[in-house]
Amino acid sequence: MEANLIDKSVIETGEMVLNMGPQHPSTHGVLRLKIHTDGEVVSKIEPIIGYLHRCFEKHCEKLSYEQIVPFTDRCDYLASMHMDHAYSIAVERLLDIELPGRVEYIRVIIAELQRIASHLVAVGTFGLDVGAITPFTWTIRDRERVLDLFETLCGARLLYNYIWPGGVSHDLPPKFIERTLDFLDYFDPQIDELNNLLTTNKIFIERTADVGILPPEVGINFGVSGPSLRGSGVNFDLRKNEPYSIYSKFDFDVPLGRGEMGTIGDTWDRYYVRVLEMRESAKIIRQACAQLPDGDVHAALPKKIRPNAGEVYGRYESARGDVGFYIMSNGKNIPMRLKMRSPAFCNLSVLSEISEGWMISDVIAILGSLDIVLGEIDR
Amino acid sequence: MTSIFDSLQQSLAFLNLDLFMLLSLIALLGGTVIFLVMAVNALVAVYFERKVSAFMQDRLGPMEVGILGFKGGKKFWGGIGQTLADAIKLLTKEDILPKSSDKFLMILAPFIIFSGAFLTFIGVPFAQNIVISDFNIGLFYIVAMSSIGVIGIILAGWSSNNKWSLYGAMRAAAQIISYEIPIGLSLLLVVIVSGSLHLGDIVQWQESNRWFIFHSPFTFLAFFIYFISIVAETNRTPFDIPEAESELVAGWMTEYSGFRWALFFLSEYANMLIVCIVASIVFLGGWLSPLHLINIFPESWYILDGPLLGLFWVSFKAVILIFIMMWFRWTFPRLRVDQLMYVCWKVFIPFALANLFFVSLWELIF
Amino acid sequence: MSEYLNNIVYGVKSFLTGMKLTMDHFRNKKELVATLQYPHEKWPIPERNIGFNHSEYNLIRSRLHVDIDDCIACMQCERACPVDCIKIDSIKPPKGSEIDCGMTSNDTQKKMIVSRFTIDMSECMYCNLCVFPCPEDCIYMVGGPNAEKHEIDYEFSQYKRDGMIFDFADTTDEAIRDAGGEKWLDQRDATLTKHNDGVQLKGEVKSVKPEPTAAPIKTGAPISTTKPAAQTTESSGELEIKSFNGISDKMCRGIAKKAFMAAKRAGKDAVAILADVAQALSEAGKMSDEIQSILDRLSVSPSKAVAPAVEAGGDIKVESVPDTPEAVEMKEFDIKDLNAIEDKMVRGTAKKAFIAAKRSGEDKVEAVRKTLADAGKLDAAAEDLLNSFSGASVELSAPVEVATLSESAEEAAVEPKGDLPLFEISDLNGIDDKMTRGMAKKIFMVGKRAGKTRTEVIADLRLGLTEAGKLDDATDAILNKLKSEN
Questions:
Q1: For B342, which residue in chain C has the nearest alpha carbon?
Q2: What is the ipTM score, two decimals?
Q3: CATH number of A54-343
Q4: In a mutagenesis test of the C interface, which of B52, B60, B239, B325 is the best target, namely the one with the most C β-carbons within 10 Å?
């Protein structure tokens, strides 16, 4: 009887391959995801990258050490200062330069402001991914303030070329410290507002808590780093574990995911770690501003960067995670080989692992919580 | 009670046309009125929505385009010509039909959706006697007609031959059909109490008793179930999963552009207006002035009634409801598709059923 | 069950908190709106005075500006640029010359002339790296081209990409030539010509049927170009001094080259140059078959001027080539002459084309004619007017134009067998009336392009002129003479 009702040979019940991107509103750039779905449920994801590939590493083999800085800017364009800083630290280690105290303090202030700016985008766009549009405009409004500060600092708003190997390009402009402190005073209540509007919203919690759980072992195995790993409760922050620059002088906490709304390591935790990190960054900036010494920021700037033959690896805790610059020098003024470890690349690799079995809407939330920047992944 | 249809029939009687001609003429006039209402509504509502969203997000919204050199306010209410300019842009835009789409269905779909909204307007009273045709079963007619649109949505999603559109259409179908149940149940409750499906009678009942929202705790709850369900029915945030822009690009509208897309837009905002007018008529006293609630000088509120003021009260209430829908949209994130179903089947429907039961008891007791 | 209800209560609570927040923002929009209405309001300029110390340098990164008076062409900025968007050319005056390159504001004696300093802002990535190494502080970031020197111009947009290339060098061609930059100028002009040809797709025609032997000659405009320097290179096209290297005898080669240079300096076109060379050689009694064949090959490009000579089988009759440029009364083509055009629209178009041609240094008449024809506005009156000016230039460019046409080679091969070779356009100069002359020349060109023979062309001329009612006795006589000639 029932055999005649439906001719089952005609009906396809296999999985459907859905192409998300490279032109899609929620892939944070030009990422393409090949999603194998059964109805709405995702069975497998293949991220396809390379749409923004610019041969950064190959370029570096033709550019002098100074000229590479603008290109590192363009890797992680949401946290350019971090990239500059990471690269400069590596080159300085290669050159064996001792930096003036003022430079180090300026760099820390700028880097933490940049972390706030970058996390504001991450948090805002994450809201956008789950459908809340208003928090995004609010966070972007606050990010504007940081960018204004940077503009007075070095004239650029996105790609700064400010932190150079051996120093910074300009000293702080007058009243910069006051303005920074003003901004921090303004910024604290904004985080509360964001929490009220988004973080504690029931729909938001339903959408993110218990979704896309990243177990700590899996995270470590995949090389996930930064807030995405700390969301899983792994206490790993290069600023604490392997302090570079002068981070050992400051008192700050490393926020970890605690599974307040669901399981440890879920999407909500990764999101909330970033919100908390903004507060910690504010704490660091306040301390650094209070201790800022005088001095010449160009004192240690080398006239010509020509390191001895050798190799060096510099690690840095950027807004996305553990950035590494591996530089091989053969004694010329251009590096023989430069390799960059991209944290967002490693973070993205875990996407398929943690989003299997979730729905398409969840994949977007999980992707948003990993906070990838395609400029850095593709380089 | 008379309707526009009846009054036109009487006033055009002098033309001595045969019945068919007369009916065609009246249909033409009525249709023009509805179309104008829909178009003006979309123009105003889009502008309103853009401004509301802008102010909630610390922005200014459209500020540059004016009408005939008049730009509107300088700082906050500028750009009043923006939606008109957008409409002109949409109508003159290139119309794209994807190569591998089902062209016939793809062209047909917007018209089905549009006619769904269009037909619903026939039974929607804007004030006492200001209704195209006055049905005995007006409420039933509106509920029935407003669900025609879902056919068009499925057709649009299917014929586009785009996976995103298909997802959007499937989500929309599931959502709209599910949410019709709580809507129907909460309207049923009103019908039980007032004993009529005729919208005029329902308002009359509220005039002689109380507004339904304040009639009993259960009708109060029913209003909220109805209101949240109509937010879902009109595919607005937090229930906008069929066209979730961060997930499905634009859902079932992904492949549409130009005029056809404008039709979707028009019917979407028309649906919004319809459900809000129905909510205000059924639960909020329709064309009765709010002074009925206070009732200090029993006779004084009569001066605030009448066809024109009635029109004002209905639209006032509807606009407030529309504003609340916009307010929702710019505050909340979006639900996931299974959570949406959860809310419908596990929260609203049990509550609505319980409501129905308790209201019947309430009516038995009081 | 209690969890179920708790969930609902918590949900409703959080919704109300959120809605209260957005409502607050909606109501307090006066304080909270953060938008800057860009074209009406502008960003506050970051404070810090402009100066060139690091501490007071104004950090606007909008557009690179160069104080060219201060530039010493040290190339530091060019080297610092990671994307190579700065291009500097400089010319060092020869030793002992009296040229003063000027002083910078830092009182440094400049030792070079900056002949080119271009910055392609469409390539610039605003990294500021070029600013720091400059020893004279003359390159820095400022506002755009329309702004006051130190104002910010947020938008320096252009309609074409070329517009983003800003040239800062202000040295005149004379100054460059004085400093011994002749070669540089030649190179520049060659590049410019090549570029223009590329823009007008002239290369397309050539590449269809390449003529390996023929030296392609460009339709240079010997008359009325604004760039005297460019003239020499343009008019002789690719007929280069190297072309004579094929001559084996040293003496002959020397004489040929000398004659070539002399003719070239005199501004003659390729045909005239060859004629001069041939004359010089025959005067010196060095004319051999070998040389003749080389010259022939150079001139094969069926310029009719030397065609008779070729036909005559080694007997050189180059003297018969009319030395046209001086013969024709040359009237300077001025923009005011275009006022004779009645139709306003046509006049406007013509003037526009005239000015464009003047700037780019092409032949104005031809440019105007072409523009009008493209616009479909070339009526008889305008045509006549243009012809009245184009007399001289057509004569010169006629053989040359033919040279670039691909069918001309076949034509040259076919022609001698049958009818007499086609006469020269300058032969029509005998016609007195300007209008008639113009018309005749037009018909001639049409016939020539179509590869018609002498008799056919003359018949065409007769027909055309009769139709226009311009065939008077004198003209008729000329035509008859042409027919019976040779």
A1: C4
A2: 0.83
A3: 1.10.645.10
A4: B60
